[in-house]
Amino acid sequence: MSGKQVELYVENLDCENDAAKLKRGLTGTPGVLDVTVYPKAAKVILTLDEGRTSPDAVQERLEGLGFPVRRQRGKAGTVSPWKNPKVLTSLASGALLLAGWLVARAGFPPAVTWGLYLASLASGAYYFGREALEELMLEREVGIELLMLVAAVVATLMGEPMEGAMLAFLYSISEAMEGYTEQKTRGAIAALMELAPKVALVRRDGRDVEVPVEEVRVGDTFLVRPGEAVPTDGVVLSGTSSVNQAPVTGESVPVDKGEGTTVFAGSINGEGSLEVKATTTYANNTLARIIHLVEEAQEKKGESQRFIERFGRRYSPLVLLAGLLLAVIPPLLFHGDWGTWLARAVVFVVAAAPCALVISVPITLVATLGTAARRGVLIKGGTYVEQLATVKVVALDKTGTLTRGRPDVTDVRLFSAWAAGPGNTEAKLLSAAAGLERYSQHPLALAIVRHAQQAGVQVAEVQGFQSLTGAGATGRYEGTPLYVGSPALFQEKLGVRLDALEQELARLQAEGKTVVVLGDEKSPWGLVAIRDTLRPNARAAIAALHAAGVRKVVMLTGDNERTAQALAREVGIDEVHSDLKPEDKAAQVRELTRTHGNVAMVGDGVNDAPALAEATIGVAMGAAGTDVALETADVALMGDNLERLAYALKLAQRNHAVVRQNLALSALVIIVMVAGALSGAFTLPVVVVAHELSEFVVIGSGLRMLRA
Ligand SMILES: Nc1ncnc2c1ncn2[C@@H]1O[C@H](COP(=O)(O)OP(=O)(O)OP(=O)(O)O)[C@@H](O)[C@H]1O
Ligand SMILES: [Zn+2]
C-alpha cells in the first residue's frame, strides 16, 4: 500500500514524551498509514491514504492533540517563549507560589496559603505530572517526571506545601527552559533556509516576473542580479560572477561561476549578473536537503546517548524503590522517626534524579551537528560524531580527492618500431585512443578525448567497446582489437613488452604523471602521459589531519606505485597502497581498521564505493553537487576542501570533551546531593535548587558547541 508523504512542522513538540503522545494520537486515525516523528526538529512525516483522509483533516487532528501545524520551517528558533504553554503554566506556578508566601507572611489564615500553594503545585506539575502518569500507565516506565511528582506530592502531604510547590515550579521552569533551548539550538540550522530569497525573477514568455520561490519549476530560467541571493539550485546559462556559497559549503571565499557551473540556493551573488536554469524546486534544493539531513541526524542517537537512556530507564525506578525503602526501613527496624525518614526519602529522590545526566549528551550533540553543518560538514548522526573523535587513520583516494580529478595530457610518445610503419603518426595514435575513450567515463579517458579534440584530430570509429575495470579499455579499430590502459595491462595481461620506452615511462611516472599505453595484442603503439593537478591545499590539509591527532594518512589508488609515491611525497602522505582494484581498496581499509582502529575513508565514490562502505566512516567530498554522495556518505564535506575533515575531527573531539565534562559534573552533583540527603544535611529546597542549577550549567556547557 503506498500513500502520499506529507511533511509537517508542528508547535509544542519538543521531547520524546510529546513525540510518543503525538504518535499515539495519530496511529489508528483512519487514512493515516504511517507516522514518523522527529521531536528534535519538531517535525512529523506522515504517509496518508488520500482516499480516506486529507492533509487538512490531519492538521485539524494535530491541532486537537495540541500540536498545531506551523506554516513554515525555519521558524522554530523564532517562536516566542511567551506563547509556549509549558512556559505559561510554569510562570503561573511561580506567581502563585510567591502569592502564597506573601499571604502567609501577612498572617492570612492557613486555608488561603494552602489554597495558593496547591494551585501553584497543580499549575507547575500540570505538564510534567501528566507526562509522568502517561508514561507510567501507557509505557510502563518510571521517568524522572514521576520522581519529581511523587516528591512534590509527598512533601505537600507531609505538611510542607510550600516546598512541594517550589519543587513543581522549579522543575517545570527548567523543563520549559530545556525545551526552549533545544528548539532554539536546532532552529539555528533551519534558519539557513531564511537565506534563500522569498521571490525569484523568472523569465516567463520573454518577460522577467517575480514569482514566489515555491512556484519556480525545474527548467525555469531565472535571473540573479548583483548582490542578490540565489533562490534555488541551478546551472548558469550565461553571465559570470563570483558567488559566496557559505550557507552550503561553509566557505565564504567567493567561487567563480560562469556558463555551465552549478549555483546553490542561498548563495550570495557578487558583482556580475547570472542567468540560471533551475535544476531543483525550492523544496528540494541543496540547502533544504542539508537542513533535512541535519534534522534527521539530530534524531540519531550515538552509543553514549543510548547507553544513558537505557541507564535512565533502569535507574529511575531504582531511585523510587530506594526512596520507599529509605522511608520505611529505618523506622521499622531501627526505631527511626517516621517523619524524619520520610522527609529524607523525599530529599533523596530529588537528589538522585538524573536530569542533568540525561540532558548532557543530546543538547551537546544537537549543537555540534548544527555547527558542523553551518561550516559545510554534514555529519549523519551521533554515532559518527563519536567515531570521528577517535579516528586513527585517514585513507584517501587519489583521483578527485587529493587531485582535482580533471587531469590533462602532458606528453605523447611513440614506439619507434610502430612509428616506422606507413601512416603511423601521433595524430593516428590520438585518433584511435580518443575513439576508444569516448565511450568511457574515466577521468583519464576524458583527458585523452579532450586532448585529441584540442589537437584538431578526427576521432576514429571504434566498435565493440569494453571497459576493463581498473586496467583500461578495449575495442575493435580497423578490424583488429586495440587496447588502452595501464602499462601493467600490457605487460601482465597481454604479455606485450614495453622495453623500448621503459626508461621514458619510469621518468614520466616519477614526475607524478599517470602513463597510459595504447597498442594492439602484439605491439605497443605509444604512451600518453597524463597529469592531474593536486588540490592547492592538499598539503596543508594533510598536515592539519596529523595535527588533529591522526596517526597515519594513507593513499589508496588504482594507479601505479611510482606515480602514487611521487604525489604522496609532494603532499606528506605517510603510506601508499597502489595498483588496487576497488575490492582491494576495501580489503586495505579492513586491514587498517584491524591494526589501528577507526578509519575514515575519503573518496569520490567512483571506484572506491566498497572501501567507503567498509570504513568506520565514509567521507564524501564536494558533496554539494552530487546527490548520491550527499545521501550515502556518513560524513559529507559540502565543499571541495579536504581541510574541513580536520575541522570535523577537532569538532568531534571537542564534543567528546564537553560531553565528558558534563557527565562528570552531573554525576558529581548527584553523588554529593545523595550523600547530603542521606545524612540529613540537605533540605528539600537545597537539593531542588542545586539540582536545577546543575541542569542549567550542563545546558550552558553543551551550548558552547554552537560556537566553533
Ligand atoms: N578508461 C581508461 N583509459 C586508460 N586507462 C585506464 C582507464 N581505466 C583505467 N585505466 C588504467 O587503470 C588504472 C587504474 O584505474 P582506477 O580507475 O582503478 O584508478 P585511478 O583512476 O588511477 O586512481 P584512484 O584509484 O586514485 O581513483 C589507471 O591508473 C589507468 O592506468
Ligand atoms: Zn531537573
UniProtKB/TrEMBL annotation:
What superkingdom heads the lineage? Bacteria
Q: Which InterPro entries match?
A: ATPase_P-typ_cyto_dom_N, ATPase_P-typ_P_site, ATPase_P-typ_TM_dom_sf, ATPase_P-typ_transduc_dom_A_sf, ATPase_P-type_domA, Cation_Transport_ATPase_IB, HAD-like_sf, HAD_sf
Q: What parts of the sequence cross the membrane?
A: 315-334, 346-370, 663-688
Cite the EC number: 7.2.2.12
| UniProt enzyme class | translocase
State the similarity comment.
Belongs to the cation transport ATPase (P-type) (TC 3.A.3) family. Type IB subfamily.
**Protein name as annotated:** P-type Zn(2+) transporter
Annotated source species = Hyalangium rubrum
